[in-house]
Amino acid sequence: MALLRHTTGEIKERSALTVNPAKTCQPVGAMYAALGVHGCFPHSHGSQGCCAYHRSALTRHYKEPVVAGTSSFTEGSSVFGGQSNLISAIDNIFTLYDPETIAIHTTCLSETIGDDLRQISQKAIDDGKVPAGKHIVYANTPSYIGTHVTGYANMVKGIVKGFTKKSGTPNGKVNIIPGFCEPSDMAEFRRIAGQMGVEILMAPDTNGVLNGPLDGHYQMYPKGGATVEEITSMGDSVGTLGLGRWATTDAVNYLDSEFKVPGKVLGLPIGLKATDRFVNELRLMSGTDVPESINFERGQVVDIISDYSQYFYGKKVTMAGDPDQLLALVEFVITLGMIPAYTVTGTSGKYFDERMKELLKDVPYDCKFKSGGEADMYLLHQWIKNDPVDLLIGNTYLKYIARDEDTPLVRHGFPILDRVGHQYFPTVGYAGAMRLMEKFLGAIMDREDRDAPETKFELQM
């Protein structure tokens, strides 16, 4: 905290230094995706320390115990390779913990050595280490490139690639591949599809895994998660909707090229316009109509925007997080009449810059944004030092800037370590849009109440 007080407004170009990055490493996202498969045991092919960090990051965010294995590299493994460790781990995991699937992801160490997961997995099968009816899927997730979003995308493709088949008999269902979002958001996708009468196959699906009930009985493999049978059947679906360009494009393209299942990649349906696009594409792909219950929820969102636009209008917002979430949030706050003054994401990609320019072209303010390794919290803080904002939106790490600059913070994204509710209440869809507006308005009005003189301290807005 004290270090933030040394942040200056003098911004200098940096090409090889990241300070307080707006991201974390690939295996965290890979482990999260693996937990969205029913009966799946994530396995980190690297050192114990790496696995401990990945598990800790997810456990602290979801307030649920995250179980995973590790190849426990020693000095010998680090020099000669980890094949022996991984085969022993596969044997031990199936023997002791009896999962349906082991989802293996690599780390910096195993990637630097050059371990071949495909070859090692096949050897484990040939050596009889994988029991009949059990499965192994895998993904390469080196931490020295990409982010947790990249790791999530790689594991999602690995899951689809490892299970999906085409029987030749269409199932009439729509595949939904959710981006990096909360279990509650995945539940909301399923609820919306259910209201529209659309049968879906969704993978991964962490609802019921990382937001389940406390009933007095520990379950290593909760009831939630996409089943192997469901993922296998994705090759027979009428189409695929990917929700998040960074997190789902590879899997959508694989289903299209390998099984001729046509796919469409949308942004995460956060906010009014993004949800409209999701509902419309789901309607077109399934051949159904939008029911009155969905229209009613949309009308509620429009009503709130109409009623409270006077409090949102012109408020300057700073955001940090994942690109799929940020692009949707930027569009949403613009819809509310707010100004997305500063935006950073640690995940790089040309599309982010292009889409941001498109979204900001009519905003009457010199909005700044940046993606990639140098797009960090330090740069964000420098921008705020030069021109303060009215609201921060992002993960828990923004709380230090919020306190240092005395600016309200709405927590959104990953990780959220000091609050609860994010895994239980969605921020996607029309219901999520209403929740976000309530949170935005609450933060803004709480600050106005705190600073209001007695003559303006009113009972109602």
From TrEMBL:
One of its GO terms (molecular function) is iron-sulfur cluster binding. Keywords: ATP-binding, Iron, Iron-sulfur, Metal-binding, Nitrogen fixation, Nucleotide-binding, Oxidoreductase. Its cofactor is [8Fe-7S] cluster. Its EC number is 1.18.6.1. Binds 1 [8Fe-7S] cluster per heterodimer. It catalyses: N2 + 8 reduced [2Fe-2S]-[ferredoxin] + 16 ATP + 16 H2O = H2 + 8 oxidized [2Fe-2S]-[ferredoxin] + 2 NH4(+) + 16 ADP + 16 phosphate + 6 H(+). Coiled coil: none annotated. Residues 25-444 form the Nitrogenase/oxidoreductase component domain. It is an enzyme of class 1 (oxidoreductase). Gene3D superfamilies: Nitrogenase molybdenum iron protein domain, Nitrogenase Molybdenum-iron Protein, subunit B, domain 4. Transmembrane segments: none annotated. GO terms for cellular component: molybdenum-iron nitrogenase complex. The keyword Oxidoreductase applies. The keyword Transferase does not apply. This molybdenum-iron protein is part of the nitrogenase complex that catalyzes the key enzymatic reactions in nitrogen fixation. Tetramer of two alpha and two beta chains. Forms complex with the iron protein (nitrogenase component 2). Belongs to the NifD/NifK/NifE/NifN family. This is Nitrogenase molybdenum-iron protein beta chain.
